[in-house]
Prior knowledge:
Helices cover 66% and strands 0% of the residues. The chain is mainly alpha-helical and 233 residues long. It has one domain (19-211). The chain is elongated and about 70 Å long.
Amino acid sequence: MTDPSEPAAPDGRDRGANPFTELLGGPGQAVDASVPGVVFVAVWLLTDALAWAQPILAGGVAAVVVAAGVALWRWRRGERPRAVAVGLLLAVGAALLALYTGRAQDFFLPRIIANAGSLAAWLVSIAIRWPLLGLVVGALTGRPTLWRRDPDLVRGYCRASWVWVAQYAVRVVVFTGLWAADEVVALGIAQVVLTWPLVAVCVAASWPLVRSALPPGHPGPRHPVVPSSRPGF
């Protein structure tokens, strides 16, 4: 029987093409996440000129309906219920907040808060040498923390995590500025421009940065190298 703590034999898959494109799933989920915001802004604009309409209510309902449709579609594709529910709950919370305050731009406030929280979490994870990128990739490869025993992978994940920190920082700065200026339409546009394109960049850039920390012959993130003689592990 194979010892699960030992790395599997390398198969060469991590040496050429970017393995994170497969492991991290690309920008698909980010596209899904941006759709409710776009729908909110579009419906808000269409109904704002109508004297009898309630633009924020109409936009919020439309956004929640679309978010529910996206959640159902993702769930039927076999994605985890928790991941599916996050997008829907975020849309519901955003709609309720905008209705409560009567300010359309507040629909995007939960997104700003979520990005600020993610920014802080990724910074802390790098500081304590438990980079979140390693946890994500480890969970997807079925070895949640084995990478932590491979100093080269830890170093690589820390390097690549800075790319993800940068995307959250850009979003927080841009979204907060537009929110403070009451720029609802610009917020909707920025959510598209600064969501899936940035995720695509992060996915593309992560593997080269991780690979730069790995010695020649290292089998890659799917197969952490864990010397049994290494002290302290």
